[in-house]
tRNA threonylcarbamoyladenosine biosynthesis protein TsaE
Amino acid sequence: MAHEFHGGEIDSSKDGLSNEQDTQMLAQKLAQHIAKGVIYLIGDLGAGKTTLTRYWLQSLGHKGAVKSPTYTLVEPYNINAKEVFHFDLYRLNDPYELELMGIRDYLEVENALFLFEWPSKGGDEIPQPDHVIRILKTEDEAAREVVIESISAELIEALT
C-alpha cells in the first residue's frame, strides 16, 4: 500500500535482519537519525514491530519495560525531556475512535516522535508519515526483511 508522505523526495533502503541483535542495531541507527516526526511501522502480527520499538525507545534512553499499547491504543513516554508516543491501532474498529480518545492533543505536541503500528486502521485521523518501516517475515522464523522509505536521504544513506 502506497503512502502519501509529508513531501519531498522519497528514498528507500532494504536490509535483512538475521536475529534480534540485528533488530537492536537497526533501532540504534534509527534513534540516532530520527528525533521527531511520524513513523509508520508496518508488518504482520509477530513480525517484530513492537520489538523494534522497544529497542528504539531503549536506544533513546528509556529505562524499564516497553509494553505494546494494543489495548490502550497509545503508550506515552518522556525520555530525556523528549516526548514519544507509541500507537498500536490493531484493535481499532473505526478511525473516529482516535478522535474520541483525543489524538489531536497528542499530535499537537511539538517535536515529538510518533510511532504508529497498524497505521492503515487510522484512516485520515493520523498524519502522513515522514518514514515508513516495513518488517516482512521470511522463510527463516528468526529472520526478517526490512524496507524503510523516508523523506530523509541522510537516514537512508546511514542505513546502507
